[in-house]
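Form 12-C: Joint structure prediction
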Amino acid sequence: MNHLSEEQLILHYYGEEDDALPAERHLDECEACRALYGSLQRALNVVDSLPVPEPGAEYGEQVWKRIEHRLPARRDVRWGWALPAPWRWAAAGAAFAALLVAAFLAGRFYPHARQSVQLAADTQAGERILLVAVGDYLERSQMVLIELANARSPGSLDISSEQERTVDLISENRLYRQTAAHTGDAAVAGVLDELERVLLDIAHAPSRLSPAELEKLRQRLEAEGILFKIRVLGSNVRHQEGPTL
Amino acid sequence: MEPTDLAIVARARLGDADAFRALVERHSRPLFRLAFRMTGNQQDAEDVVQESFLRAWRQLGRFDERASFGTWLYRIATNCSLDLMRGRKRRPAVSDEEDPVLALPSGDPTPERVAMSGQVRERVAEAMDELSDSERTAFVLRHFEGMGMEDVGRVLGCQPGAAKHSVFRAVRKLRRALEPLASGAR
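Section 2 - Result
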């Protein structure tokens, strides 16, 4: 007698087979398969034992109220949130600003590319470098914020090293925010603006934070959802980067 | 008769925010359940729901009208959930006061029951965390949402056969991780 495979048992559990009868007959006769099937059912019952909070009937309305004011006009959909149209970067005279940043970053992060003077004339390459750099920048910002959000200390906490990193991040943030503002990418500029304000507050805070101050910062990060916004933006930027240079 | 999703989407694409509101009100609750299953945390799930709709609004122009709007939205929400979960520590799913296991009507919360519920919650969360992105998504969609393999494949952006194998791997991993707990609970 051929035993049922675990895959067949899983299909049987979900009722995905073309014909359930053969498996049922086999389970009636075969103790080993019955034991395995029982093990599978028990494990999935454990997963099922944790119920999901059920939102009320008004939940959809609540969601709408929270997002309504954040919806950009449909015609304003931009590169940060939808597929990028390369010409947008060149539009409105913004290519120059973008390439300035690209050249700055090429020098900073890609020393091997210094000799490529023609890079500055290559708009597409510039856009990609910019996207890579923005993705990298968002990741580093996120790391600083996550470290602070997860920091635990019984007494006061020294955040001077995070503050040093924050100061560097603020300079970069300004470049990217201005570029996004020049190209009319209001959504991206908005997130970067929010991020900049958080970074400025961290940079100008005392170098030692009491547990209460740390908790206040943590609550602010959560309340503003800035980490989530950075992650979503970072994810979209990475999606647009295309192949690595 | 209520208008179909596609009819409402067509209006929303033209910038009609009221049409989009109808979609939000129609799909928020199922999307919350999906997001909670993906993230294991109520606050995260609420964040995911909001961000999913914002992303959907911005990407409406890319929605293929031949597809189901609900499936498309699920795809956005699963990506949003995965974005949220990556690179961050998992928050406790719930506080002890609102522990859904303790809330089950099966007797007083004895110390043993409190300990057991915490253990179950942690083990299930750990087991789910061990799944890859595609395994977790496929499992949540198949097991909790009751989606067929074809729809699971559409959300994952893969063939139904590949979706099926993701479900197989997920269930196999969960069975092995939870079997000791499940046996103890018999």
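Section 3 - Comments
Residues 6-48 of chain A form one domain. Chain A has two domains: 6-48, 78-241.
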